[in-house]
Amino acid sequence: MRVRKNDRIGIILFLLPALILFMVFFIVPIISVISMSCFNWNGISEAEFIGLSNYLKIFSDKVFWTSMRNNIIWALSACFIQVPLALLMALLLSKKPKGWKFFRTVYFLPQVISGIAIAMLWSAVYNSEFGLLNGFLKIIGLEQLTKNWLGNPDTAFICVLVYGLFYIGYYMVIMIAGITGIDDTYYEAARIDGANRIQMDIHITIPLIKYSMLTCVTLAAVFGLRTFEQVYLLTNGGPANRTSVLVLYLYKQMQNNNYGGANASSVMLILTGAVVIVLIRKLFSIKKD
Amino acid sequence: MEKQAIKNSVKEKVTLTKIILNVVKWFLIIFFALYTLFPLLWLVITSLKTNAEYFDNPFSLPAVLQFQNYVNAFNQANLGQMIVNSVTVAIAATFINVMAAAMASYAISRFKFKGREILFALFSAGIMVPLNALMVPYFTIFSKIGLLDSLNSLRILYAAIGIPISTFIIRGFMDSFPLEIEEAAYIDGCGFFGRFFKIVLPLVKTGLMTAATFQFLTCWNEFVYANLLTSSPSTKTIQIGIRYFTNQFTTDYVSMYAAIVIAIIPSIVGYILFQERVISGLTSGAVKG
Questions:
Q1: Are B39 and B45 in contact (CB under 8 A)?
Q2: Best exposed site among A41, A157, B117, B182 by fewest CB in 10 Å?
Q3: Same domain, B95 and B27
Q4: Phi/psi of residue A39, each to 5°?
Q5: Across the interface, which of B33, B99, B282 has its CB nearest the CB of A106?
């Protein structure tokens, strides 16, 4: 529809609420995080310009690098374990086996429950005294394997990370949507050529849902980088900061009134996210040729 | 004769691999279902036990169903107040969010004006912004306007952070309707606002409901900012409330599990009732994005 003169005011009026909210809570905060990362500021007194000192400080902090490493492990395992598992289940369920709707409903369920409730559930699993994991090990006679899963520096991080990797419903649903959109004639042609189901999956389905896979990998990486609730609730970064992640790191700096350092960490987080998104897009377009 | 024997052995091999593949397939399908369902079932059962029973054996069934735990959760943690808080926050934030997004979508989808695609791309890019990285600015904004420890801060913030995804969903629905319908109404003398309220909004009802479902779930489940921006008992939301029992000197586990059940039941019931809408709401941003 062409813009008519008397519509102009309406258009501006209608854009305004969303635009104001977007400005105040997206654009301005991002600018403020970037600019304030160059200031020494405790949130109360006057901020003092200190150039890149906040960055130098966090770069020389071991906990920052532990957090960064943990986030990267998190993102990589989501991309290389969770998404492939989701792809496998999408391939299985898209053939509509018995009860596939029920299973899809179940797999997607964790997505609608709050992360904090799920994390509390898993802290019951890992609890050293009356946790389900230790209880199960005792029942099957492996009592020597029981341990304080979240208190042990060797197991804490993997425990916090691993449980979410098997919640595959979200990515699975995205990929099923991709598979449903594939034209049936591809499969008919393959059937005439005598291809079996697995061959069809590998040579037809997977290449044709590349776009859905790109979406899933991007989201998995981005979610891996912004992880917070699980770690905050299960270990709060401990033992000895071994399980810290970037958001928790910046949260703790904020709690210590080191707002400049927190902002520098935020910038690093946003930058890492942007780099990862660009990298994944590049990788996928290289594959295409 | 020999030929026949070879044929038979090949056939046997084929059926054997088929059987093995089938077993593997069903093993996977059932494994992922149990992985989601078992902890939830365990949670419900344990929430009906006594603490002594729980400490004694985390896998046992309750001798007598302890509905008292649910009463405790409500009385001690003041869950009733928290549920009211969560519901009013979620309703207000969802309403503001969906209205603002619908109005912006109407302007973007129905009228050609300079910069509208740039504006839409900007909104869409907001989906990828790691909001957890913006803790410092959000905290500063609300402390400056004096809304710290007020539910209004959550109402505004939740409405704002959902703008990108809601605009994305609603615009998609609006674009799928031809402009001719409104052209006719325009000729009949229907103005800018009349066309929006009388024609476009009723047409995209499904889109509005999809965005609203997604937004409501996000608000109900949100933890990070509720934790950061509110502190007194009267402003706590349900996701903060379920941690009440862990902050006490002795943890009343079974009441805590009852509280978790109360917190996740609305999500699960809503999900089962509006399943298709929830799934498409939670993934539609991703499918195209």
A1: no
A2: B117
A3: no
A4: -120, 150
A5: B33
Q: Which of A15, A211, A225, A278 is the best substitution to test chain B (most B C-beta atoms within 10 A)?
A: A15
| Per-residue pLDDT tens digits for B82-134 | 999 999 999 999 999 999 999 999 999 989 888 889 999 999 899 889 999 99
Domain holding B18, by residue range, is 2-46
CB B111 within 8 A of CB B179: no
Task: Quote the pTM value.
Answer: 0.91
How many CB contacts within 8 angstroms connect chain A with chain B? 247
Residues of B in contact with A277 (CB under 8 A): 128
Of B108, B130, B136, which has the smallest distance from its Cβ to A263's Cβ? B136
Considering CB atoms only, which of A114, A130, A136 is closest to B223?
A: A114
As assigned by CATH, the class of the A61-288 domain is: mainly alpha
Task: Please state the domain count of chain B.
Answer: 2
Shared domain for B147 and B195, answered yes or no, is yes
B56 within a domain of the structure (yes/no): no
Q: Are residues B152 and B80 in the same domain?
A: yes
Instruction: Say if the Cβ atoms of B29 and A7 lie within 8 Å.
Output: no
Closest partner CB to A117 (pick from B108, B138, B242)? B242
Task: Decide if B58 and A88 are in contact by the 8 Å CB cutoff.
Answer: no
Q: Where are the domains of chain A?
A: 61-288
Of A174, A166, A172, which is closest to residue B283 (Cα–Cα)?
A174
pLDDT of residue A10: 92
The model's pLDDT over B202-233, given as tens digits with 9 standing for 90+, comes to 999 989 998 998 899 999 999 999 999 998 88
- Residues B21, B120: one domain? no
* CATH number, position B236: 1.10.3720.10
pLDDT digits (tens, 9 = 90+) for A186-242: 999 998 988 888 899 999 999 999 989 999 999 999 999 999 999 999 999 989 999
Disruptive mutation site among B135, B170, B201 for chain A (greatest number of A CBs within 10 Å)? B135
- Identify whether B62 is part of a domain: no
